[in-house]
Amino acid sequence: MIFALLIIFGVLLFNLIVFVHEFGHFFWAKKFGVKVNEFALGMGPRIFKFKKGETLFSLRALPIGGFCDMEGEDSESESPDSFGAKKAWQKIIIVASGAIMNLLLGFLMTFIILCQANTLVSNTISKFDEGAVSSTCGLKENDEIIKINGSAIYSYKDLSFNIFAASNKESFNIKVKRNGEIINLENVKFRSVTNKNGENIVQPDFYLKPLEKNFGTLLKATFLDTISTTKIVWESLLGVIKGNISFKNMSGPIGIASIIGEKTSEGLQTSVFAAFMNIFTIMILITINLGVVNLLPLPALDGGRIIFLLVELITRKKINPKYEGWIHTIGFFLLMAFILFISYFDVAKLFGKG
Description:
The protein is of the alpha+beta class and 354 residues long. The chain has a domain at 120-212: Pdz3 Domain (Roll). Helix content is 51%, strand content 21%. It has helices at residues 2-31, 88-116, 156-164, 215-242, 253-268, 272-294, 302-315, 321-350, and strands at 36-52, 55-70, 120-128, 144-148, 151-152, 172-178, 181-188, 192-194, 200-202, 206-211. The strands form 4 sheets. It has a 4-stranded antiparallel sheet, with helices on one face. Strands 1-2 form a two-stranded antiparallel sheet. The protein has a two-stranded antiparallel ribbon with strand order 3-10. Strand 6 and strand 7 form a beta hairpin. The mean pLDDT is 84.
């Protein structure tokens, strides 16, 4: 029963993420006088609806998305309150606001998570594990870790990701601040451990100094942690493009649902609150992921639309909506094909074949 309620909570949180994204579009559309025909949460047939002013608000059967249908967004319209009739800079704000709202939600949710934490941690080493390997490779207590393999380190999340996801896990180049001096350490190694799947993984073998927890340090830690999560999403995408990260390690809707169920079960072994926090943490990654991915300059995504609008802003000439619509339609089908491709690996993992 508790497990089912937590899964429902996860579904509600996911729909909050979608709602916030679409509300960003809706808010700025109304602010600039664009008519919104429908604001929908979910996909498929309507199960609830009401109309307020010129907008139909609806709840749909499948809790897997939503949309904000603006007049003249994907077609030509002569109406002065259509999307196409607005200035290019206004349209850019309307289109970008959904992703920005997702990033802001990620910031707020991260703040809530850190408020529950017993302590905040710095990037400064306090002590090493017994038998630590990195202490024999140049790292010392009180070193503040600034970069790993050229990637800036903002939080422990950054630190562990850059070690775990490195393409070469034999050794690392680490930049530290020691007694006010910047020092480059090469060929730093860490102890490897065996995870529950029997795989050898590399992880930090030291502890970090705690920070005094107050409102100021909470805000700073929230900001840095949000940057870290955003950076991790971006670097993961680059890793896939470069071939450093396999498509098999990506997750689509099926994989995400599986992860939520797994993390919920793991959390329940400790407490209901732990399971709740696990779901909440996953949702932070999802909302920031949605924000980052939507800003990619690809057809069918908000970032792709922004590219067309930037061209309009610079040339002061509108691109024919018909041609732009074709490009976004093609991009949409390619995006759906990609999601199906990732879902294949998700299903394979579920049956132990991935």
